Amino acid sequence: MSEVVDARGLSCPEPVMITKNALQKTDESEVTVLVSSSVAKDNVSRTVSKIGWAVLSVEEEEDGFKLNLQKS
Amino acid sequence: MKERGLIIISGAVVGLLAVILVLQGNPLNMGFCIACFLRDIAGGLGLHRAEVVQFLRPEIMGLVIGAFIMALISRDFKSTGGSSPALRFLIGALIMFGALIFLGCPLRMILRLAGGDWNALVAIPGYVIGIWLGTLFLQNGFSLGRSQDQNNTNAYLGPALSVVLTILLLAAPTFILFSEEGPGSQYAPIALTLGAGLLVGILSQRSRLCTMGAIRDIILFRDFHLFYGVAAIFVLTLIGNLFGGFFEPGFVDQPVAHTDGIWNFTSMIVVGLGAVLAGGCPLRQLILTGEGNNDGLITVLGMIAGAAFMHNFGLAATPEGVETNGMIIVGISLATLIVIGLGVIANNKKSYL
Hints:
By secondary structure, chain A is of the alpha+beta class. Chain A is built from two helices and four strands. Chain A has a four-stranded mixed β-sheet with strand order 1-2-4-3, covered by helices on one side. The two termini of chain A are about 20 Å apart. Chain B is mainly α. Chain B has helices at about 1-25, 35-45, 60-75, 85-100, 105-115, 120-140, 150-170, 190-205, 210-220, 225-245, 260-280, 280-290, 295-310, 325-345; strands at about 80, 150. A two-stranded antiparallel ribbon of chain B has the order 1-2. Chain B is globular. Classes of the chains: A alpha+beta, B mainly alpha. At the A-B interface, helix 1 and helix 2 of A face strand 2 and helix 9 of B.
């Protein structure tokens, strides 16, 4: 089970901040991020690519989006 | 790349329309000004009695309805809210206090600069410092908390209110006030202003244009994405003003502006800090309102209430300058925002540092 960052209900820049923070701390190579808006999804996607992570897949869920990230 | 194109196009359209609206009758350097227009709406509804700034500005309704339509199409329309509503209302009012001392929201600050109003050059550093202060709060764990999914009825409130205001504007019943002189009496044709609002609302919903986010994201993430949009607003307005003959460089005798540098600077610290704490500049709050976000709506209502307060108590600045009470309100606003920031951090368990 990879690490999960729950940023649901938070508005930007908070999802980006907690994701970035979690990615910098984690030992895992895969991290899942939960967000509730497409703006958070886009912002997280744009930011993680700059710090050496890739968005493997985005799943649309009932209450938002699930982003699967992998260290690149 | 597609995203970057969209944000630049959004900014460019805002800049171009800002010039066209002035050409067609809006006050100078006021093609768009969210704070001014919300203040005029407060006046039009009789919430304050400053006779020169009363008009139900259709740009505002257009922005909300445009964002609403686009959010429905893009499936971003979602009923959310409940993230510290009363604090957001207060922060909205404080943002308005600052804006009515500077005489413009951050968007108008850019338009004023593009019109040659050098007082904006004094205000911009204030805005940036306010945003930088806000990012310190964010990095130390400031958060107004998670929003919740709400019953869908909530989401339609903002767009419905905009439709009602549009009907009131067109029907013009006697209890709706219209300025006979001053900035409130200067406006481009209603179809044009409504259409301009709609178009900008549609584009901004997609691009998430935000004058605060532009600077905040550079400070926090070295991310220039939103900044391209703001730069596009400036460039297009500047070009438009040069061709339209509206570019009049100088500090003195600028339209709906004063030369009190200290207060232009300090008031925009308030607006910048407030916008970070609220999660968006006044324009962005309107777009969020259209997307069904009640946290945006409550901030907008706070701004309207703040405008009524400022004019009812004679605190707003005038082209003559800032009264002593106006200076005091800037100090109180800044202190209140700092107390809110520290209070929220003290009561939040998590820090992102």
